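One thing: could you explain this record?
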Amino acid sequence: MPLNRTTHREILHLALPNLISNVTVPLLGSIDLAMVGRSGKLEAMGAISLGAMIFNFLYWSLGFLRMGTCGFTSQAFGAGKQEETVLNLYRSLFLALCGALLLLVLQGPILKVALLWAKPEPGLTTATAEYFRIRIWEAPATISAFAFAGWFIGMQNSRIPMYVAISINLINILANYFFIFVSGFGSNGAAMGTVVAQYSGLLLNIGFAAHLLRKLRKERQGIREDSNAKPRYRIRYRDIWQASALKRFLDINSEIFLRTLVIIFVFSFFTAQSTHFGSEYLVLNTLLYQFFIFYSYAMDGFAHAAEALCGRFTGSGEWDRKRRTVKTVFAYGFGIALLFTLVYAFSFDGIFRIFTQDTRILALCGDYYFWILGVVLLGFPAFLWDGVYAGSLATRPMLLTMLVAAAGFFAAYFGFRNNLHNHSMWLAMLLFLVLRGLCMGLMAKRIVLYPPSRVRNQPPACS
């Protein structure tokens, strides 16, 4: 199937802003690590590492809001159903606020269970608890951001999430500098800076969404965008609770939620299990993980573009364009993976020293160089297929694939832990990514690349 300029333009129009905004996301944690790391406080770095593990589990478990909202919204957009696109935003925001309230109410038990699981040293336990109790108050802003981002991308607009992400990180840098270096709060200061940044992002998301909703209402009534006339068209809010639509929304999101729980459990296990090898290996794996997470967020830029476009073409029934998009996205994905492999191959030591000057950690990092290159070069199909499947709302195959990959992860870790020590963690991580990409690739022709009539148990396009 020949590639054409329209396909490239559509992908890059969504992928480049997504790539920029996604790369800035891990900066929130990396900035915290870098600033505290330069202060020479290893205990504070450990607190941020464990605190980030807890919040990754909490927030990523609710990350289904972004993926589910994007899938539903993009399919409604492709089908030309404007009212449904708006209702999807309201449904998603309602779930986001419910999730945030639940986290705030249960913050005590959550912290207790997390510390019992990770079993850090006594001094690290106290620092992590303090960090957690501050950052938990960002929950409403952070979880709502998933809903907003999914909706904007589903509406084929990835620039707004980019603007918000860049603004959050600029504010985070300034707030961290003030709370860590000027006020001397250490890891607590890093938590304070993140809270300030996330609520700033919430205000921006609300402003952008209000502007876009007003624009949509004017388009509905044929009012010129530069007109001062107020649109009279309004969404019927009772439709948010329409039984069949809400049930479908919850059913799809529940499968994404379970799939997300599996992947977060694997990554959280990765961090928590590192503590059993000692504090040095906890910090080492956390810093090595930064190489992976920068790469993964860059790859997700194209995955999110695939998600938006595949959802749109599923909704409009343009299956040839969908297959052309998938083929082109994978060509870009391979290029991104190769680029990161080359950058890491020649700059590994220099990048690593940005995060720490601790001689114990620097002495260990060189032995793990080849694992980073393997994960980067072989892991990219997993990210791109996630986008294709999510946009197609093929959520059950995503869940089953994740379960198979997780089984491979734990089999590799426990099978080689005694012989390979900490290297078994990275072998397991590599296998986890390869299995995800391989399984989804083998199922793709039957599940997501052709019309629903050829796909068993596939949800129909937006109804």
The two ends are 30 Å apart (CA to CA). Residues 5-454 form one domain. Residues 455-463 have pLDDT under 50 and may be disordered. The chain has one domain: 5-454.
